[in-house]
């Protein structure tokens, strides 16, 4: 068994390192906030009543991922949010969340809003899908 590598001194290949591992910080004492991942899709009457487009309630047919993060005792100005194609990294003075997303997202077309009464940050991200028999546009 022989592993081919670009540099013989490397101890692993870049394919072996999970995406987003550069954000992992095991020494950070901040706790992880509670969060919820929801999937969203736009459905019309042709989907619900006639089944013409082939959409179903599974996550494979969803267009958006909505992540609701509970941040008690946090101000909007204290939140740092970084979104990559497969990773969401959230930092506040008291909380830290590194979330590997279930699907690749378009990191340039996301939106976030902070609901101050509920103390929840709501992040909506557009899923980046390959074209197939369900996703034409």
UniProtKB/TrEMBL annotation:
User: What Gene Ontology terms describe where this protein resides (cellular component)?
Assistant: cytoplasm
Q: Which GO terms describe its molecular function?
A: dynein intermediate chain binding; protein-folding chaperone binding
One biological process term in Gene Ontology: axonemal dynein complex assembly
Question: Start and end of every PIH1D1/2/3 CS-like domain?
Answer: 32-127
Q: Which InterPro entries match?
A: DNAAF6, PIH1D1/2/3_CS-like
Which protein family is named in the record?
Answer: Belongs to the PIH1 family.
What's the protein here called? PIHD3 protein
This chain's source organism reads Tyrannus savana (Fork-tailed flycatcher)
Q: From which lineage does this chain's organism come?
A: Eukaryota, Metazoa, Chordata, Craniata, Vertebrata
Q: What's the gene?
A: Pih1d3
